[in-house]
Amino acid sequence: MAVEPNPDAGGLSPDNAEALGRMVRALDLAEGFALFFARCNSPALCSNLILIATQQLAALGVEAVEVVFEDELADVRQRLRAALQAVDEPTAPPPAASPLHLPVAAESSASYAVGTKRAVFVVGLELGIPYGE
pLDDT tens digits for 59-117? Predict the structure, then answer.
């Protein structure tokens, strides 16, 4: 017997709608840094889940950001940081090069407003896992 999708859950099956609801609740209740993983083998379903989650999180006051990696990743952390900086400062020009302004390897001290919550959906993270090396 085939399971019919729930029309109230954006066309998701009951199992997917339940899993999405649990994820949205966990993201809403998380304080500080929290790391969650979800596996989705269908790109179309993944996009739909992120879209619905983004809408549900926005209603809860949680900003959602989607970062999509489409090619092999040599340094996941660096690429993720760059993608999030582009979201934080989309129009900021790069700093002028000068001998006094050298790049530092320390963590950036991004200032976020108190109470701002952000959920980051990373798609294509598996491209950062080396295979056959």
Answer: 999 999 998 888 887 788 888 888 888 877 755 554 444 344 334 344 444 444 455 78
Cβ-Cβ contacts under 8 Å for 97 (sequence gap 6 or more): none
**Can you name the residues that pair with 123 across neighbouring β-strands?**
68
**Cβ contacts of residue 13 below 8 Å, gap of 6+?**
3, 5, 6
User: Do 65 and 121 meet the contact criterion of CB atoms below 8 Å apart?
Assistant: yes
**Maximum Cα–Cα distance for the chain, whole Å?**
69
pLDDT of residue 125: 84
Per DSSP, helices labelled H in 11-73 are 14-29, 43-59
